[in-house]
Amino acid sequence: MSEGSNPKPLPPLHRSDSVKGSWLATGRVSDDPTNPARPQTFRAPSELHFAAISVVFFAAIMDALIWWDYFAGDSDRLTRAIVFLVVMLLLLVLFALLQRQRSGVDAEKVWIRTLGFKYTEVKFSDVKEVQYGAMFLKINDGVNQLNLPFETTDYSLALLRLTEELHSHGFTINGVAPDSADWHLVAQRRAHAWAQWVFINNRTYYMNHARAYDYLFSLETLPVTRAINLAPPNAKNFPSPSEIQYQKGNSHLTAKRYMRPNLGPRPAVKADKKEEKRLSKRSRSPKMPREILGSRIILNAGIVLSVAFALVLMITVSEYRSGIEGDIASIIAPAAFLLMGLILFISGLLWRVGANEDEMWSRFGPFYRKSMRFSEVSRVSKTYRGYVFYTAGSQFRFATHGWGLGLIYLRMLWEMRVRWLMVPGLDFFDPATNQQVHQIRTELFQRLYREHIKYYDSHPDELELITNLSQPLKP
After folding, report:
1. For residues 238 and 129, what is the distance between their CA atoms, to the nearest angstrom?
2. pLDDT digits (tens, 9 = 90+) for 18-42
3. Dihedral angle of Cα 398, 401, 407, 413, to the nearest 10 degrees
4. Model pTM score
5. How many CB atoms are closer than 10 A to CB 13?
6. How far is 28 from 39, CA to CA, in rounded Å?
């Protein structure tokens, strides 16, 4: 199809589960929880909940201290205590409203309920304009406008429906109207990019559901230009199961594909002699599953604060009993810091990060656990503390200040070698995407080698493997 021709019309999405046709043929009414086209409902981001809880907790502590002073005889604190109490109650109400905030998407529409009161929806069949960016999508039906964040929420169904609507009716895309001469090219690029986004974020599902895969491929209209390009399973751009061996029993990674000897020299690893001597002691295989402390900084800070303010509290209590110090605040302040230190100490002990051959996880004792499968990672970005890995609607932050999880580096090198990943904040067609992914790939290789330098120096075959994994994919 030429860039200037009209997209081939496709039958519209069926609106009822009872209708037999392309809906059922593509498996989109399945109860499969991995189905990207299933209707979904989302809560407010967890960051908002955490911020609300933190503010309420701080206000409660301040209000308790003020009331303590008031009952201790300071009558001037009454007004301030009442104000803080009212503020705390308002924050509790706000937190309760945040708990009620919902957004969702189904075959007909995308909607949002703000703070439990205002309900706004936009039907896909009524969309008049779409504005897209690397991290958001704004859809407008002429009356209402909704902003869809793609970094923390899985809106695969919204992209599927918008791509279908591009085949059935036109709408303005980033200011380019359907009657414009450039609209067809822009529409084809968007259909291509949105189909790619859906596939990359739901790769496991589509590789296991051929009819849904074929339907998604039919929505993609641009010529195939990249290695991910929605090629059918086991085509030349994808290694077949017989070409990749991943043996779980002995933690062994081997490959018969992509392990070509002419991939270029191994990237240089810079390390001074002192660092090499320290790291050379780490001869343990990176393929071994392991779980480590999530943050030694938090644990050490908790120990220091607990010990220091326990001593201070002992001194202030002794002085208060002897009458040297008569202000009760001299006991409350160090007691509060001691409590903070104990909280940090317990948090440091309970917070763990680990990885095995299939997934990486973080947990807080028996109370909380979050995991992410390596095969489902669709985007990766670098932060000042480490890396953030994304799936459709979820993210996993991994700090690199610790040692012991070389398996994460190894598995991500593998995933970045056999398929394309995207970078948050960059559009699919941005050439900087491949540059940043390759930079992250090189850094992962260097960290993996430095942390297990003795092991890889004594296993040249394994060193050649990770060297080949660190090379960029070629379209």
Report:
1. 36
2. 222 333 233 333 445 567 777 777 7
3. 70
4. 0.56
5. 22
6. 10
- Two tokens, residue 349: 């002990």
Tens digits of residue pLDDT in 168-188: 777 888 888 888 888 888 888
| CA distance readout (Å), 44 to 51, 98, 153 | 12, 7, 10
How far apart CA 169 and CA 29 sit, in angstroms, is 24
Give Cα separations from 47 to 43, 98, 281, 382 (angstroms). Answer: 11, 11, 40, 19
**Distance (Å, whole) CA 343 – CA 347:** 6
- Return the structure tokens found at 66: 């003020």
pLDDT, tens digit (0-9, with 9 covering 90-100), for 50-74: 666 666 676 677 667 666 666 666 6
Query: How high is the pLDDT of residue 151?
Result: 61
Q: Which helix (H) or strand (E) holds 118?
A: strand 118-123
The pair of three-digit structure tokens given for residue 145, joined into one six-digit string: 């406008």
Q: Do the beta carbons of residue 137 and residue 174 sit within 8 Å? A: no
What would the two tokens of residue 62 be? 């301040």
Closest C-alpha to 378, from 366, 358, 396, 392:
392
**pLDDT value for 248:** 31
pLDDT digits (tens, 9 = 90+) for 437-446: 888 888 888 8
Given a contact cutoff of 8 angstroms between Cβ atoms, the answer to whether 81 and 63 are in contact is: yes
Pairwise CA distance, residues 25 & 215, whole Å: 9
d(CA 62, CA 371): 36
The band of 46, judged by pLDDT with boundaries at 50, 70 and 90, is: low
Q: Which residue has the tokens 């050490």?
A: 300
Helix (H) or strand (E) holding 122: strand 118-123
Q: CA of 129: how far to CAs of 24, 143, 175, in Å?
A: 29, 11, 8
How would you classify the pairing of strands 129-132 and 172-173? Answer: parallel
How far apart are the C-alpha atoms of 186 and 265, rounded to whole Å? 40
Is residue 404 within 8 A of residue 280, CB to CB? The reply is no
How many whole angstroms separate alpha carbon 407 and alpha carbon 253?
A: 11
Q: By CB neighbour count within 10 A (0-12 exposed, 13-18 middle, 19+ buried), where does 400 fall? A: middle
> Which of 112, 206, 204, 198 has the alpha carbon at shortest distance from 155?
198
Q: CA-to-CA distance for 404 and 98, rounded, in angstroms?
A: 38
